[in-house]
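Sample entry copied in:
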Amino acid sequence: MLLLDLELKDKCDFNGLNAIDDIKRASPHTKIFVLSGKIYDNLYHIKLQEYKRDGKIVGFFETGNHEEWCSELIQMISARKVGILHFSDMHISEENDNSKQILTGFANDFKEKVDLLIFSGDVVNRGKHKEFIKAEELLIDLCDRLKIRNNVFVPGNHDIMRDTPVRNAFSHFLHFRKSMDEYAEYYEENVIYPDVEGYADYLNVVRVFPGLRTIVCGLNSATCIEDGKFGYDYGEITAEQLRQAEEKLAKVKGQYPNFLIIGAFHHNMFEPPYYFDFYNKGDTMKWIPPVKKQGLILKKSFENGLDLLLTGHSHVSSSFTMVSHNYKDKKPLHIISAGLFSEKGITPLETQLTANYLTYQIDLSGNISNMFCQPYSHKLTEVSWNKEKGYALESNKTISHD
């Protein structure tokens, strides 16, 4: 962390802000805290607000407000940063597959600390056993290299075996998820899965990470029932699955109050803004329909105090923030799609691979603040992954530890 005392009188040249830019170019991960004798110039004040919103500085105060900036500085120094890597749609296959090169390139370029990997579906391309074996090897290698010890995986429509009885449709995915759990030294109580009757409601999971002060509710939006219009592309989270997940969530929220709560499932919440006919089928098919029961999913998300919803499926990265005025706290819900992490399925709308790095701070009292999303992108015609412009995930208040 760098404590920068700026004289903000150079209103024309903005040398103080230029100094910040120089420091961030030389050392991108340096946390800059700005003090000034008097922030009396409104234009400078606006620019410092922009710098804080863009993540260039972590805060700014007038030196005269000793109690305020000392308290803030002590809190930031003592705070611990938590990092979550969000992947989706890797589509690993047995042949003609560059997943290893893509993952290796990402691991070489990515320099941040990751505490948790959340993968929102379509780990593989056809739900085959050999594909999941390959996925396990590649993802364990990635976790070893980036020192990721925690993970959550939810299934996508490509993780289902379509040429098998419905009751076995998710068996390869479940075996893969069990292996990744064991790698992370997470051992769930033995679960006897019932026969799948179309929707596989039992695949939802609620995981608690006490050291990260985070709860993840992973849902299954991939169905075994073929839709007459959308085939197997469509997704649905049934009312019964939401009831089950809500019941599990209520129990852990009672044990772990004021934790960050993240929901994750595969299918996109909103229809992507495609203005072209992707498959050349005219009006017979509209590709990548949104998940069914969006209204119920959003209602339950707000009722249960979710902070983030992480999705995939559309192969396009997106970020929306919603507030419901039906609830007193008016807590924002951030809905973020990770886009595509594969050379398969690149759309004309987004001709690059993408991933998201989400961070927040936990202070010594257990309070959570400063949520931030840092997107990464990679064009197949280029060598390196690029860090895109990040953005703050605003909250109406700090998640306090009472």
